[in-house]
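Notes on consecutive records. When two proteins share a document, each keeps its own sequence and its own C-alpha cell line. Never mix them. Below: protein one.
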Amino acid sequence: MKKVVIIFAGLALLLSNPLFAHPGHDHSASGSGLVHLLWLVPVIVAAVVVVFREITAPKR
C-alpha cells in the first residue's frame, strides 16, 4: 500500500499546473459540473476498490 501512495504522489508532482487550467477551461459553463464529476468518477471508484481490498485482505 505504501508503494501505491508513493507512486501516486510522485505522479501528481510530475503533472504540470497548466494541465489543470488550460485556456478554454470554462468553469462557468452550464455542463462543467457534470463534466468534472464524470472525470472524477473513475478516480473515486479506484479509490474505493483499493480501500476495500485493503480492508478485506487477510492479515499476515
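Protein two starts on the next line and is unrelated to protein one.
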Amino acid sequence: MKHYFSSRYQRHKRILRILSLQDGYDSYRPRRPSSEHFIFPRYTWVRFFLTFGLMMILSVPSAFVLRVVFSVLSPKVQIMLMIPVVMLIGFLAVEIVDDYFLRWEEAFQEFRRTVLPFIVLALVVLIYFVIKNPAEIKRSVSDWQESVNENVQSKPQPIVASPNQGLNWRLLFESPNYLKKTTRNESEIYCRSLGADWQVFDGDKMFIAHPNPSFDRSFYVWHGLTGAVLDKYGIQPPKVFVTSAVGTRFSTLCINKRIRP
C-alpha cells in the first residue's frame, strides 16, 4: 500500500493509463455498431462500479469506528477530523482499483472468475433468507429506518442567535451555537425547569420578545404539539408549520408572557 504514495508509482501509473486508454477501448469495442455500450465501453463501467463499491465497503466500517472514537468531541472537531479520513478512504479506493485495472487485458476475465461467483452466491443467500424470513427482514428494515431517523433528528441544530437569550425567552443549547433537539415532553420539562410561568413557545401574537433576536438561518421549534419555523428575523408568530410524529425532535424555545419589556 505504501507504493501508492510514491511519485515513481504515480508517474508509472499515469503512463500506463494513457497507453491503455486506446487499447482498452479497442479491446472492448463491440464488433457490431448496433451493440455499442452506453456512452463508455464496458471496462469503464466495470471500473466505475468497482471503485464506488470499494469506497462503500471501506467507508461503512470506518465511519462506525470513527463515530465511536470521536463521540466525545464536539461536532465541529468531528467534521474537521472526519474530512481527511474520508479523503484518504476515497484515495485508497481509487488507487486499489487503478492498480487492478493497470492490467486491463485480464481485468474483466479476472473479475468474472474471482468476484462474480461470490456476488451470485451472496444474492442467492440473500434471496433465500428473504423468502424464509420476510417478517424478520421487514422488522430489520424498520429498525434501521428508525435508527437513521433518530440519529438525524438528534443531531444538534447549528444556529447563531444574536443575542442567544433574552429577558423573557430562552433557547435550549447543547453547546455554543448548537441548539439541542428534543421531544415534545423533553421540551416541556426544560421550560418548566426555568421557573413559574415559563412555557413552550405557542406563537402568541401578543408576545413581544425582549430583546427580539436575529438568527443566521431559519429553523424548527416546538409550537404546541407541532413544529413551526422561526425565520431569521426573530421571534414572531410563525407562518409555516410541520406535523410531528412519535419520536420527532425539534429545537426548544421557552417564553414567559408575564415578563414584559
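For the record: The first helix runs from residue 7 to 28.
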